[in-house]
Amino acid sequence: MLVLVAPGQGAQAPGFLAPWLDLPGVSDRLAELSATAGLDLAHYGTKADAEEIRDTAVAQPLLVAAGLVAAERLLPGAGAPHAVAGHSVGEITAAAIGGVLSADAAMAFVRTRSTAMAAAAAVTETGMSAVLGGDPDTVVAHLEKLGLTPANINGAGQIVAAGTIAQLAALTADKPEKARVIPLKVAGAFHTHHMAPAVATLDALAGTLEVSDPSLPYVSNTDGTVVTGGKEVVARLVSQVSNPVRWDLCMDTFKELGVTAVIELVPGGTLVGLAKRAMPGVATLALKTPDDLEAARAIVAEHGAQE
Questions:
Q1: Each residue of 53-111: pLDDT tens digit?
Q2: CATH number at residue 43
Q3: CB atoms within 10 A of CB 172
Q4: How far apart are CA 126 and CA 115, in angstroms?
Q5: In terms of domains, do 137 and 243 share one?
């Protein structure tokens, strides 16, 4: 059983889309997605530096477009995943692959999401840091003591703290027992109360979108459950910007479903790394460049649903 997953913000790196533009049709497809997003995604994915693509208003549309392009090159003729999921903004990619939103609707949604979250982040200087190791309950209690939010509970010994720069500095100076702290390349305290202003903006947009029920199981960040209604998926996409991501519960659901393989879309790596630690014995592949397509198609053929 195969689950196709899409990474969240912070996975991007300068030039990561460059090799994909060598594939026939990708430049034209990216131009179409760029028109909807109001951004030159080819520029940001090939020539922009790390600081430019750290911008929330750029990073989020770039990641969704990259995931859609990769999925469109991977799946035709190779079979299909049995389920989809995404981490944070990757949930929008998953919603499009799962048939809840069209690609254009997904790009319109992520463009609004990214600008609304960037505006919310500009109100107070905030950020996020990964806390690696330590007892999970002890880590969460320590974060709460410092006024921080456990914004991503990712499993496999990783919890992401979010809050003000001062609170994150206090965490660096006073780490939880047996834990390391690594600042992340994001420009705000996502999935916390700091993002509340973006919820109303997205809620207004959600009512204008054409939505379908998922064509295959969609595993939600909210609580790891499989969501079968399209309107419920979109409602969760709206609320998740100010609520924690529970990727640990998503992986629990993967195990309950009997998942035997995980493919992470470009720019893959983070979610596959978590799966390797939390789901031993499961086949994994991070689809980083077109050179990985052959191996990914072999996994789809072996573990995916055959059409």
A1: 999 999 999 999 999 999 999 998 768 999 999 999 999 999 999 999 999 999 999 99
A2: 3.40.366.10
A3: 11
A4: 16
A5: no
Q: Which residue has the tokens 């973006």?
A: 198
Peptide bond preceding 214 in cis form (omega within 30 of 0): no
Residue 83 domain boundaries: 2-122+192-303
How many domains would you assign to the chain? Answer: 2
Among 137, 63, 46, smallest CA distance to 107 is for 63
* Structural contact between residues 128 and 190, judged by C-beta atoms closer than 8 angstroms: yes
**Do 148 and 168 contact (CB within 8 A), yes or no?**
yes
Question: Are 275 and 152 members of one domain?
Answer: no
| Same domain membership, residue 197 and residue 139 | no
CA separation (Å) from 299 to 278, 286, 304?
A: 20, 11, 7
What is the side-by-side strand order in the sheet with 218-219?
A: 226-227, 218-219, 83-86, 2-6, 261-264, 283-286
Q: Which residues are catalytic?
A: 88, 191
Q: What is the pLDDT of residues 258-306, one digit of tens each?
A: 999 999 999 989 999 999 999 999 999 999 999 999 999 999 999 998 7
| Same-domain check for residues 240 and 272 | yes
50 and 199 inside one domain: yes
Lookup: tokens for 55: 């911008």
For residue 135, give every residue at least 6 positions away whose Cβ sits within 8 Å of its Cβ, in sequence order, or none. 177, 178
